[in-house]
Amino acid sequence: MTIDDYKGRLLNAEAAMTWRFAKNVGIGAMWRYVNYRVDVDKDNWAGRMRYRFSGPAVFMQIGF
């Protein structure tokens, strides 16, 4: 996305598996990829912000 002198990007992808050991409770593991990026081009300032994460995560899921 580009607005005036600002450019941005957001990318978030994940793959997950969950094991439900009870009717409303489960645990799981996932691999997550996140990539943020912002570019700014101005006469008096030029900058960039980047963030990248790629790795595993574990989680607990509760349903009602």
Features:
64 residues, 4-stranded antiparallel β-sheet, elongated
Largest sheet: 4 strands, antiparallel
Main sheet strand line-up:
1-2-3-4
Rg over CA atoms: 18 Å
Helix content: under 10%
Q: Can you write the helix and strand succession as a string? A: EEEE
Shape: elongated
How many domain modules?
A: 1
| Class from secondary-structure proportions | mainly beta
Low-confidence stretches: none
Number of helices, where a helix is a run of at least 4 consecutive DSSP H or I residues: 0
Count of individual beta strands: 4
Q: In whole angstroms, how far apart are the ends?
A: 38 Å
Q: What number is the mean pLDDT?
A: 87
β-strand amount: over 45%
Outline:
The chain has 64 residues and is mainly β. It is built from no helices and 4 strands.
Give an account of the 3D structure:
The protein is mostly beta strands and 64 residues long. The chain has strands at 2-3, 6-20, 25-41, 46-62. The protein has one domain. It contains no helices and four strands. A hairpin with a 4-residue loop joins strand 3 (25-41) and strand 4 (46-62). It is elongated.
